[in-house]
Amino acid sequence: MKSVLSSEWVKLRSLASTYHTIGTAALMLVLGVLWTFYVSSLADERGSLRAAAPEQGFLPLLQMSLAVLGVLAITSEYATGVIHTSLITVPKRGRLLLAKAGIVGIATFLAASLILLVTYGASRLIAGGRRLGFNEASFADDLPMLLSSGLSATALALVGLGLGAAIRSTAGAIVSVVALLFVLPGVVNYLPPPWNTRLATILLPNLVPQIVEQRLSSRLGDGLLPPWAALGVLLIYPIIALIIGLIALERKDA
Amino acid sequence: MSVLSSEWLKIRSVRSTYLILGLGVSTILLGLVLATSAAGAYDAAPPEQQAAARIADLEEALIIMPQLCMGILGVLVVTSDYATGLIRTSLTLVPRRWPVVAAKSAVVGALALLVGALAVFGTHLTARSVLGGRFSGAYATAFADRLPLLVALTLTVPVFALLGTGLGALLRSAAGATSVIVGFVYVIPIIVGNIPEPWSERLGSLMISALPRQITGDHITTSVYGSLLPPPAAAAVMLAYAAAPLVSATWLVRRRDV
Amino acid sequence: MKLGAHVNPGFDLEVRTLVRRAGGPPPRILYRVIELQHLTKRYGGTLAVDDLSFRVEPGHVTGFLGPNGAGKSTTMRLILGLDAPTSGQALVNGRRYTSLRMPMREVGALLDAGAVHGGRSAYNHLLSLARTNGIGSARVVEVLEEVGLAGVARKRVGGFSLGMKQRLGIAAALLGDPGILMFDEPVNGLDPDGVRWIRGLMRSLAAEGRTILLSSHLMSEMALTAERIVIVGRGRLIAEATVAELTARYPSLEDAYMALTSDSVQYGAAR
Questions:
Q1: What residues in A contact B182, CB-CB < 8 Å?
Q2: How far is B230 from chain A (nearest CA, A)?
Q3: If you compute the radius of gyration of chain B from its CA atoms, what whole number of angstroms results?
Q4: CB atoms C128 and A11 under 8 Å
Q5: What rounded mean pLDDT belongs to chain B?
Q6: Residue A197 belongs to domain spanning
Q7: Is the residue at B258 inside a domain?
Q8: How many domains would you assign to chain B?
Q9: Minimal-distance CA residue of chain A relative to B35
Q10: Between B157 and B53, where is the model more confident?
């Protein structure tokens, strides 16, 4: 297993797309800094205001970029035909997918956490003593939110990997991730209560707020899950996607 | 013309095309589900709540589905040629090159117009018949009054398809172009919605989803987008979304090594 | 040729793959053998491989011939576990390929030289393959030198010519220093120098006691390289013979091939 992991690490670090996707995710820092400068200048005029925290407002960018990384980790092998060579060198397909999941999981969690922490730190430094709404809690209070945000990006990357293995098409897998992250939550919003909140409570983008006990939105109100259950659901998404990918990988001819 | 029929043949001989078209049109089913559940909730509510009850324009809420699907189809008609190496054959057969991009755009654009119309009008008429006289607002007004907005909504679908085609030709990567499309539909609007005024409204007015209502002058107060543009300007912005990537892609495809 | 220095003596393998069937035939040594037993693969309505049985043994190059669409590549994919057979089985060293723990050390294969990620360097491509089977980077450098790609090891594979990609594919097959090697059309796109190089490589690999299964459409080249020939058509076995036997009965290997496959050509001009 260690040897397969090390091979997957070589694959991941030798591709330009890895750096493109992580670079896109890191735009969060640039946008977060601009954002904080901007709201700081507003605060200087108006005194105080309630602005969204950059690491939360730009989270979809981070999640989506790293999900694409996860998708590409497998679909690029199908697109180029490298998957054949991979399966010849590692005929146990479950082991191949597991190693990919391990490497993608570690890489995205580290990248996401680093980007989130740096964005968090930079924005709080720029904000200084101004009252911007998002910079009033202590770092210890915000840490669970930062960690669960990082975890959600990793979960999405692994969902992308699992769906990529099942669908084998880059565009198809990205669209599936988009469906989970954006389309379903959008549609569920339009259901009449109480079903909108009931369904929204288990949807991917609503799990991080529930882990840190924040409300979902003004329309949906509070989620229905306690933090530990929301964390559990967040972990179940990648597990299900990877199982689907594994079944497809084992069943179908390469 | 021959280039056009060749591109048409290429797109209709691939299985994923039908999957994408089907997914785009299946919006009607989602509309049916939402309208039925809304009607149920309405009937269960006491009369004083019924009078105040409102329902969102479902075809507008769901337009992101056909937009996304046809945007992806636009991406794929170009990038699949690059991925398989077929583009070399295509460009060898048509050395002037621009007709290849034009033919792809025409085929995808026409399909997108069809899918957009089916999805928008299908969803609207389905919701109208399911809801009957329930809810004041969109489905209680005359169909003819809604027609301009429905047409404008429909047109955003081919805009996405052409945007996808242009981005696909610019980036030559399915992953890259798909990500940008997704960014346009979802990520950027969320970010724009989060920034403070006046920029939220200014930038929000430029989002593709904000354009139909600005073109028809059909403003609503609950919109998350802005409504600062007069109709001609909104129409021009919409055109630019489709044309700018395509024009630059055509220019680049002519100059770039394959 | 420096390969000889790395040949795995394979004694451990020999013991491990000694197949003993209770009450059955006496134990056989299945070291360095590809064995197909009634191998059948159906894709929808078409039989790509139809009840194919033959053995490929060590010490010489076995040529694998047949018209386009005869099922040669499918057979190789089935041997390598990429596709699952509809019935029958393909064994390497007496075992199913997918059950091998370190497959690269037992079997090396070149199927499609174009199947590389254009953005990766030759070195990283090979390293990622080598790592899966616990093969070190020193061996990667070694095979790159053996196939003559040492000078472009850090270049993106996307810029390689077809011939260079063939050499890269051969390097990948050689990484684990395996006793069994399979090559699907390795000569495609190579220059005369490369063709001669492949010929010498195949022969010396076989002379080292390896099992070589080589598919090609170039009959003259095959006559120079292979000792035994397996011919398939429409998924079925047509002939299994030595080159000497075939050229004794026919004017040349090409004539033998033409005569034997005349009924099996699916995609060809009228002749």
A1: 64, 174, 178, 182
A2: 28
A3: 20
A4: yes
A5: 86
A6: 2-251
A7: no
A8: 1
A9: A191
A10: B157
